[in-house]
Amino acid sequence: MRLVTLFLTSLILAGCGGATCVDEEVGQCAAESYAWNAMGEKPGTEPSVEWREMACPDHPEIMRNAVVVNGVCYAGLFYPDQWHILVAYTPGLKMSQVALVHELMHAHMANLGLSDPNHQMTQYWQQVDVINMQLSGMGL
Ligand SMILES: [Zn+2]
Q1: What distance in angstroms lies between residue 117's CA and the mean position of ligand 1's atoms?
Q2: How far is the CA of 106 from the centre of ligand 1 (A)?
Q3: Tens digits of residue pLDDT in 119-136
Q4: Strand pairing category for 76-79 and 84-88
Q5: CA 1 to centroid of ligand 1, rounded, Å
Q6: Distance of CA 98 from the midpoint of ligand 1 (Å)
Q7: Among 33-47, 64-78, 85-99, where is mean pLDDT lowest?
Q8: Predicted model pTM
Q9: Which residues contact 74 (CB under 8 A, 6 or more apart)?
């Protein structure tokens, strides 16, 4: 019984911040906790997550929303100095279909002292694909 309590407590602590949740119906907190824990042991905390539902100004044909910074569209951005993530969200998409896990991986790598803005360390990015497939299998 004690183990169960500890497990639930750690899930809550590792979960999303609540105030920044885009929509609990899409399972943001569950997806975030699962992905962050699946990346492995690490020092430090999970970054805060904020969502953007902006149209891409230069590419209106793109049906997905974007994070738009200085006129440039991104699926997501990680700000290590602020320990903060911006993720584009389009209503109807699952958590495994947006850049949430990808940006969490940037934070995970930063926790390990790694920086890989150009995604050269393939083992980490393959893990993102695996985690997204697992989330998809969980309906997230
Ligand atoms: Zn990236």
Answers
A1: 6
A2: 7
A3: 999 999 999 999 999 999
A4: antiparallel
A5: 40
A6: 12
A7: 33-47
A8: 0.83
A9: 66, 67, 68, 86, 88, 99
